[in-house]
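look at this one:
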Amino acid sequence: MLYVLLNWCCLSITAFLAGFAFLAPFERLGYRPEKAGGVWLAGLAALTVYAQIFSLFGGVGAGADLLLVLFCAAAAVLLRKKLAEFWKRQSGELSRTKLLILAALTLLLAYGTSRGFMHVDTDLYHAQAIRWIEEYGVVPGLGNLHSRFAYNSAAFALCALFSMKWLFGEPMHAVQGFLTLIVAMQCACGLLTLGKGRRVRISDFMRLGAVYYLTVLFGEIVSPATDYFAMLLVFYVLIAWLDALEAGEKSAVPYALLSLLLVFTVTVKLSAAVLLVLALKPAAMLLSERRWKQIGLYLGLGLLIGLPWMIRGVLI
């Protein structure tokens, strides 16, 4: 459990800084990140792309982690004022009750991530696929050795990046637990506001569904199973999407960024592709305003997210 918490410290810091660096340029479009969960998710997507690109040239191990630390250190220095402003806003919204709940969730899910039952597919190919990426990166023709390696989930590259066997002496498959924590925090922070006179929203029912799913998942979050990984991403995006919709969000930027997270979800599990239909909303908003540059920007970012995954798929 202690190793999981240490791994999460590394993961949370690097993912947050990477996500904040990615979202910083969107301030020019009038968007400013307001929630740490959204920054973390943007960071996880960015780091997954980074890990997949790195895997095209070699194993995703200590070298990839060192390069990531250097990038995050530079980002922390260059964006220090914006980071200070962000955390100042966050500190004003955190009550003692909320902090206690978030701390309890962290300890509970770290405990669950450190033990439990392995998904049957983890023994079959999940752990093996992650180790191949750690040690060799992408291996041409690997899918012919074991057909399930050709499933090529992007989540495996992210797990390899934070496996950190070189540091802990054993592979740490704790990324899924961290994603579970983000979704749990999203649910808790939203449901806590119900006691402050806020009306019940559709997103609250989605949160209740996510809470139920988390209770079912708790016994197996130790396993880096792609099904769970994709489902957690789907819950996060749908809750955030409904929050924005029910709050009357008029800007296309939040919806477009969530659509990019859906592209990321598709690289984790192809069966999530049906949800890309949600991207029609920001597309329609941007087309009606004739914002051609923004349309090109989002299409380019979507291609950037999907291209390393597709290249890996062809090679494998």
